[in-house]
Amino acid sequence: MLQNTKDYSFELTIETVAGLCQNPTMERVDETLIALRRILRAVDLFGRELAQSVGLTAVQFRVLQIVAERDHCTAKEISQRMRVSQAAVTSLVDRLVSRGMVVREKSEVDRRQINIVTTPAGRETIAGAPDPLQQRFVQKFDNLDEWEQSMLVAALQRVATMLEAEDIDASPVLYHGEIRRSS
Q1: Which bin fits 98, alpha (ψ -120 to 50), beta or left (φ > 0)?
Q2: What DSSP state is assigned to residue 183?
Q3: What's the pLDDT at 8?
Q4: Residue 95 needs a FRET pair 20 to 30 A away by CA distance; which of 57, 86, 109, 114 works?
């Protein structure tokens, strides 16, 4: 901190003064807020990129991906997978139907059941979309050791609690905004 000169007097430098004035706790708070802001910005930028390239929101795109993974599924299956209400899924599927990405068909096994099926246009949309942010995260998360995964989950859950957001209903989709919207 203080530099000892040859004549044994101490010289204060700008770096020394700055070091004395900095609050390490505030630096960590700032670093944490910057990291959170970067995450929010990444989600926002990806959402814009996706909207510009394929005309879908990240949530609509995720519904399309879920349907395409299995060739068909029900609204109930999508709602369980995304952890959102069936009403929200119905709205999202309506939007995808209107854009020709999926169709609703009666099940051949159970006529009471309606299956949601990906169309060729839906498959082309998936193929032409930018690499989903969420998939990049999942791939990198899967490469972490189990203890690192647990530590990261615990830290993020703690942040949610600190922001008093632990009771906010959320699905496992990286998306900035309300999922109920279908635009």
Answers
A1: alpha
A2: -
A3: 45
A4: 109
**CA separation, residue 141 to residues 148, 149, 183 (Å):** 9, 7, 30
DSSP per-residue codes, 9-62: -EE--HHHHHHHH--HHHHHHHHHHHHHHHHHHHHHHHHHHHHHHHS--HHHHH
Q: What is the mean pLDDT of the chain?
A: 81
Cβ-Cβ contacts under 8 Å for 171 (sequence gap 6 or more): 59, 82, 83, 84, 179
- In terms of phi and psi (left: phi > 0; alpha: psi -120 to 50; beta: otherwise), the region of 45 is alpha
Q: pLDDT tens digits, residue range 133-167?
A: 878 888 899 999 999 999 999 998 998 898 888 88
- Which tokens go with 66? 């879920």
Domain locations in the chain as residue ranges: 3-162
DSSP 177: S
pLDDT tens-digit readout, 54-103 = 888 888 988 999 999 887 899 999 998 888 888 889 999 999 999 999 99
User: What architecture (CATH level 2) is domain 3-162?
Assistant: Orthogonal Bundle (1.10)
Would you say 38 and 27 are in contact if contact means Cβ atoms under 8 Å apart? no
